[in-house]
Inverse folding.
């Protein structure tokens, strides 16, 4: 993962004149990333996932580490093939452990970026993804939680919540996008309180992260990466909430207010 | 513990720990109070500790995920107590 790379003089988001070459470049970058997704997984990672599933005592840990390495390489592929994309990652983020991490959500790249930052990571995933071949199996084995407890998801949710406290205590992170969906205008939407409830229940500190400009590279509703623009993708810690759970436990509402305040104070 | 005692305990937990305001026994927990599956799991933990005094099995917990009202919670606790006392 790139960190504090040299900044360019050109404005972030500056769009170069669009022509056939630009579109071809976007297509090439997108295709390269898909090639890594499919063939990188098949040739380099699938055997490791299989070995972890069959041989490991605790496959969850191995699956999370494999996800971490897979997406770190993915972002190396992105920054190599799209050099106009500069990644600025707050160095302190990689040191976060045993925490619930909440972050604003701009693009499908966001969860991948957070997986690439935390070797032990869990997140909440839309239920429909659990039904997809291979990917559904992988997210289940990784210990990710379904965003539903209806029907057969109730058992999965209960199993995951029963072990969440020990997972967090052992150094794992749970990252969540409390808006639930990608923001189309960059503004913070309604916050789902699930992350805050989990933090409160497990008596865990919270980190509030803010992401910028992943949507400029991979815009919601578009298929191709927008690799032609000069773009600074950044992620930084904007608040660290470490409540006194023993003597002054906060309510979920108080935590929500604090998170919202952090986002509002850092709104662009 | 009588049905009324259980009801009072549940109302106290929901008011103090889950920030419910004036909960009604037939309110839809999700729609009227934003009570979700994470809350349900936390509530089950509190029920184990303060009302039942024993741990629920996974199957018993799964049954609780379909609960919609406070009256349902009370009936669920009575069912569990009844089935465990057999």
């Amino acid at each position: 993962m790139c960190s504090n790379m040299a900044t360019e003089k050109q404005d972030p988001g500056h769009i170069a004149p669009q022509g056939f070459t630009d579109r071809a470049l976007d297509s090439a970058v997108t295709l390269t990333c898909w090639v890594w997704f499919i063939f990188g997984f098949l040739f380099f990672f699938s055997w490791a996932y299989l070995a972890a599933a069959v041989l490991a005592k605790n496959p969850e840990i191995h699956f999370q580490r494999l996800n971490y390495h897979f997406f770190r390489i993915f972002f190396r592929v992105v920054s190599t093939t799209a050099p106009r994309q500069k990644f600025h990652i707050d160095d302190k983020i990689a040191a976060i452990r045993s925490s619930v991490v909440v972050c604003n959500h701009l693009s499908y790249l966001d969860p991948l970026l957070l997986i690439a930052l935390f070797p032990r990571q869990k997140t909440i995933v839309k239920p429909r993804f659990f039904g997809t071949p291979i990917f559904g199996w992988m997210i289940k084995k990784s210990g990710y939680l379904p965003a539903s407890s209806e029907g057969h998801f109730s058992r999965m949710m209960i199993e995951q919540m029963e072990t969440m406290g020990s997972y967090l205590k052992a150094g794992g992170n749970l990252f969540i996008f409390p808006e639930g969906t990608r923001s189309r205008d960059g503004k913070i939407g309604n916050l789902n309180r699930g992350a805050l409830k989990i933090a409160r229940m497990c008596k865990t500190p919270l980190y509030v992260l803010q992401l910028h400009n992943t949507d400029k590279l991979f815009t919601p509703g578009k298929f191709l990466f927008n690799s032609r623009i000069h773009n600074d993708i950044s992620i930084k810690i904007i608040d660290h909430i470490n409540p006194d759970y023993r003597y002054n436990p906060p309510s979920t509402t108080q935590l929500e207010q604090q998170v919202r305040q952090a986002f509002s104070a850092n709104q662009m | 513990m009588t049905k009324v005692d259980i009801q009072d305990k549940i109302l106290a937990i929901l008011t103090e720990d889950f920030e419910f305001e004036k909960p009604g026994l037939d309110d839809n927990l999700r729609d009227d109070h934003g009570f979700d599956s994470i809350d349900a799991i936390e509530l089950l933990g509190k029920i184990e500790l303060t009302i039942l005094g024993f741990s629920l099995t996974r199957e018993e917990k799964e049954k609780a995920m379909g609960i919609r009202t406070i009256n349902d919670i009370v009936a669920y606790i009575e069912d569990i107590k009844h089935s465990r006392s057999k």
